[in-house]
Amino acid sequence: MSIRSLKTQLLFYAIAALFLWACAHVPITGRKQLNLLPESQLMASSLTSYQQVLSNSKLITTGADAQRMQKVGKDISMAITNYINKNADHKHRVKGYQWEFNLIDEKTVNAWAMPGGKIAFYQGIMDIAKNDHGVAVIMGHEIAHAIARHGNERLSQLLTTQMGGLALHVALSEKPQKLQELANRAYGIGTQVGVMLPFSRMHESEADKMGLMFMAMAGYDPREAPKFWQRMSKLGAGSRPPEFLSTHPNPHTRINNLNNWMDEAMAYFKNSSKK
Question: What is the enclosing helix (H) or strand (E) of 114?
């Protein structure tokens, strides 16, 4: 491909992305966003990565925790799908989603969700969740990252600002395996601390708000969310970095935000079919 044709293609991507940015808004928050990568391509890469993680992990498929994760996951995914499908501007965000929930037998305190509805929890986080409502807090938050397409935003920023303008073309056409590697890092799959691309504080706060609403829509008590994050903050007591060094909000900031959003969440909770 010639330099001229490559520049033309990159210009096309840029114009198309700017047009979509002018029209696309994140559900719940209404924030405008700029995503340069086709979500369908990220979903394909995510599916490959998800299957690789599962094949290399010991899964918990029976018992109370596995059943709880499946039940809460199905409830919240159904509530999200119903909510999204009622808004024509957001329907594309769950297009092609095939929800799947798996519990990995590791004491790691972690959970993540990828485009396409692929969710994984680690056994370690279930001890902190304690009950259905705690699992719903985690589930809503992680799925919110996928629905809001935060990973696409991170990858788009990386490809355009850190790797140069040609990186977008390379990722899309010449090196799909490189895109998969970046997607793994963007969604925190199989990475260590300091290796994955962190969500920004804005992304984390947005996922907190969206997740709070999602759990409430599914009939899980949003008032349990501050309690869960209080338990999480105790886990990291004495070792947590200052807020300006962390992409996660300070625990007090996070809990204050959740309480400020509680009236809106309670309205969804009271209108849910399952309470």
Answer: strand 111-114
What are the backbone dihedrals phi and psi of residue 102, each rounded to the nearest 5 degrees, phi first?
A: -135, 140
SS3 101: strand
User: Residue 111 corresponds to which tokens in the numbers above?
Assistant: 């959970």
Distance between CA atoms of residues 208 and 115, nearest Å: 18
On whether the CB atoms of residues 203 and 69 are closer than 8 A, the answer is no
pLDDT tens-digit map of 248-257: 778 889 999 9
- Cα separation of the two ends of the chain: 58
Three-state SS at 118: strand
Domain chopping of the chain, boundaries: 23-271
Q: Name 120's bridge partners.
A: 102, 112
pTM, two decimals, is: 0.81
* CA pair distance 224, 270, nearest whole angstrom: 15
Q: Can you tell me whether residue 91 is helix, strand or coil?
A: helix
CA distance 115 to 113: 7
Segments of 13-109 assigned E as strands: 59-60, 100-104
Q: Are 93 and 84 in contact (CB under 8 A)?
A: yes
- How far, in Å, CA of 19 to CA of 47, rounded? 28
Q: What is the dihedral of CA 248, 253, 256, 262, to 10 degrees?
A: -20
Cα(58)–Cα(107) distance, integer angstroms: 12
Confidence of residue 157 (pLDDT cuts 50, 70, 90): confident
Cα separations in angstroms, 100 against 26, 81, 103, 124, 132: 23, 14, 10, 19, 18
